[in-house]
Automatic annotation (TrEMBL):
It comes from the Bacteria. This is Hypoxanthine phosphoribosyltransferase. Its cofactor is Mg(2+). Purine salvage pathway enzyme that catalyzes the transfer of the ribosyl-5-phosphate group from 5-phospho-alpha-D-ribose 1-diphosphate (PRPP) to the N9 position of the 6-oxopurines hypoxanthine and guanine to form the corresponding ribonucleotides IMP (inosine 5'-monophosphate) and GMP (guanosine 5'-monophosphate), with the release of PPi.
Amino acid sequence: MENLRKDIEKVLFSHEEIVIASKRIAKEIEEDYKDKEKEPVLLCTLKGALPFMAELMKHIDIHVVTDFIDVASYHGGTESTGSIILRKDVTMDLENRDVIVVEDIVDTGRTLNHLLNYLRERNVKSVACASLVDKPEARLVDVQAEYVGIESPNEFLVGFGLDYEEKYRNLPYIGVLKPEIYS
């Protein structure tokens, strides 16, 4: 990963820290859903949450099912446009299911708020969010993830699913992208 490392100003969260956060969230989910009638649906938001979803699932010791949804609010660039586009919808019937939205990051909160409302309209039994990264300083909408791995300062992050123009998702850590890359 030395080729890509030259574009990173600093590493904020190592792979080891990400794994520890994922294990902690997995145990919290186990505890909260162990007595539920049906397995919770882990709903991965594509593409960014895919590495976190894969890491998280490995540590959950109850039955879960998975599905995917693709929503976009960045459309390139470094800031959310505020316009949410549904690119791929879920494939299963979510009515009367416990759904856990698996997010890479909650920053402005617009995308998560939109997703939570969208899922409630589909008559889910319950809906929660597990986010690897929370960036509360960037919040524009009053929304919170129930399960948070790591709290981050308000910097432009890449790695472990987080991208800039579809690049850097494959980094095994989360870092701050050098401003000259996106300026």
